Amino acid sequence: MMQAAVQKNTLMKQPMVVSLKGGASGAEALMYMKSSTGDPHKVLIAYSLIYMLPLSAKIPFNWRELTPLSVIALDQFVLWDNATLPYKNVKEFVDAAKAANPPFKMGGTGSKREDHVLTVFLEKKTGAKFAYLPYKSGGEAATQLVGNHTQANVNNPSENLEVWRAGQVRALCVFDKERIQYKNKVTDTLSWHDIPTCKEEGVDVQYLMLRAMFLPGKVTREQSAFYVDLFKKLTQTAEYKDYMEKQALKPVFLSGKEMLKFLEEDEALNKGLMTEAGFVAK
Question: Is the pLDDT of residue 21 over 80?
Answer without folding.
Answer: no
